[in-house]
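Tip: read the tokens left to right.
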């Protein structure tokens, strides 16, 4: 009886040892799989082309015509700027144009009839004076020939006669100018003043058009910067517009994970925000990122320095519901 009990005890001990060994093996196997690191995933995010709307003219925001999140079309007016200085410059340019046009018309039409008549009368008066001095000179010349007057007296009268002739010629020139109008050069100068004034008006009108800021593309208003009434400077952006038709994915990939990724290759990505469906994309750009921002030292482990590359991929076909900022994962 004691022998049979001892055999049962040995048998139970053996079964216990086997059970313990099985448990240890199971725990070891589970531990191996549980502690195995998950495969690294290449993640990135969606991005879209974004345009900033800005103007050339400083002023205050008078009105926004679109709210954030609204859709706009290319050429739509999205904001209006109030700039009294531009309107003042327009008034100045128009006044300068009026003055130039008046000067040009004066050069074209010539002097008024009253001015022509006055110039004629002055010429006739000069002719009378010339005739009188001519007769005086002739009398003095005859007396000089008879040695009645001195040579000095004769020269004085001759000088007065020559001056009268010159005065008559000058009066005749003034009369001719009044009759025939300004010279060709004067007319060209007057016309140039008009063209210059027209150019100034065109310049101001160009600035006036800049008071109405328009969208450069179809898209969605993503952000507005100033508030109505705030002052904005030249070139200051007032609004950002996203072109949702031009969207892509950007991934930051360590170089030790670049194997299999090359420009032109198609890969599948999953966008968690859109569910479990995967989408085909084509890699269009691979470029190393700045070392100061992406370098990762691994030499301490006897390996090498790892850099990060910027990888861009575009959807092969539009992805409905995709928006900038959504996370994307490359699926092996």
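Filled-in amino acids:
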């Amino acid at each position: 009886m004691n022998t049979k009990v001892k055999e049962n005890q040995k048998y139970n001990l053996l079964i216990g040892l086997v059970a313990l060994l099985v448990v240890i093996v199971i725990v070891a196997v589970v531990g191996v799989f549980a502690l195995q690191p998950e495969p690294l995933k290449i993640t990135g995010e969606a991005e879209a082309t974004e345009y900033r709307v800005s103007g050339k003219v400083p002023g205050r925001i008078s009105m926004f015509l679109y709210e954030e999140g609204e859709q706009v079309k290319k050429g739509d007016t999205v904001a209006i700027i109030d700039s009294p200085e531009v309107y003042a410059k327009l008034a100045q340019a128009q006044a300068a144009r009026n003055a130039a046009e008046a000067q040009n018309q004066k050069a074209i039409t010539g002097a008024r009839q009253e001015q022509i008549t006055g110039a004629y009368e002055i010429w006739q008066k000069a002719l009378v004076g010339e005739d009188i001095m001519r007769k005086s000179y002739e009398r003095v010349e005859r007396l000089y020939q008879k040695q009645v007057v001195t040579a000095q007296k004769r020269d004085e009268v001759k000088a007065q006669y020559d001056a009268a002739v010159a005065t008559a010629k000058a009066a005749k020139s003034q009369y001719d100018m009044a009759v025939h109008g300004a010279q060709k050069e004067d007319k060209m100068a007057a016309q140039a003043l008009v063209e210059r004034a027209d150019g100034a008006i065109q310049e101001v009108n160009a600035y006036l058009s800049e008071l109405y800021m328009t969208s450069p593309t179809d898209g969605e208003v993503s952000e507005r910067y100033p508030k109505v009434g705030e002052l904005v400077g030249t070139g200051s952006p007032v609004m950002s517009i996203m072109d949702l038709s031009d969207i892509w994915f950007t991934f930051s990939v360590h170089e030790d994970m670049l194997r299999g990724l090359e420009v032109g290759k198609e890969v599948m990505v999953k966008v968690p925000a859109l569910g479990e469906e995967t989408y085909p994309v084509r890699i269009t750009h691979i470029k190393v990122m700045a070392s100061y921002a992406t370098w990762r030292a691994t030499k301490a482990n006897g390996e090498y320095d790892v850099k990060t590359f910027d990888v861009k991929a575009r959807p092969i076909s539009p992805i409905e519901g995709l928006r900038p900022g959504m996370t994307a994962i490359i699926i092996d």
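The longest strand covers residues 237-254. The mean pLDDT is 79.
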